[in-house]
Amino acid sequence: MVTKQKQSKLPTQKVIKLSLWQPFNTPLHRAGLAGLYMSLKHLKSLKGEVIDWDLTPESITLRWNCTDRQALIWLLNNT
């Protein structure tokens, strides 16, 4: 019996850019982005460990190579 082997996929980098001025943002969204900005600024010594990010006064860019779940768990455990 021949079985197919799963092909190993190279991890692909996932990127999300969040901006204060996206059309759907409400004041509540902007407050949430401010909280994320402050949390990431506090975590600068851990930058690149699981999640990498760039912060500007008006946007946050997040990048990760693991699963979304692993990235979120890492972020929640470290904030």
Mean pLDDT reading: 89
Q: Class by helix and strand content?
A: alpha+beta
Estimate percent helicity. 25-40%
The coarse overall form would be globular
Distance between the termini: 50 Å
Strand content: 15-25%
Number of helices: 2
Spans of at least 5 consecutive residues with low confidence: none
Number of strands: 3
H/E topology pattern: EHEEH
Widest beta sheet: strand line-up: 1-3-2
Sheet of most strands: 3 strands, antiparallel
Radius of gyration: 16 Å
Description:
Helices cover 34% and strands 23% of the residues. With 79 residues, it is α+β, with helices and mostly antiparallel strands. A three-stranded antiparallel sheet has the order 1-3-2, covered by helices on one side.
Primary descriptors:
single chain; 79 residues; alpha+beta; three-stranded antiparallel beta sheet; 2 helices; 34% helix; 23% strand
Compile the SSE list and pairings.
Layout: E1 14-19, H1 27-42, E2 51-56, E3 59-64, H2 68-78
Summary, kept brief:
The chain has 79 residues and is α+β, with helices and mostly antiparallel strands. It is built from two helices and three strands, in the order E-H-E-E-H.
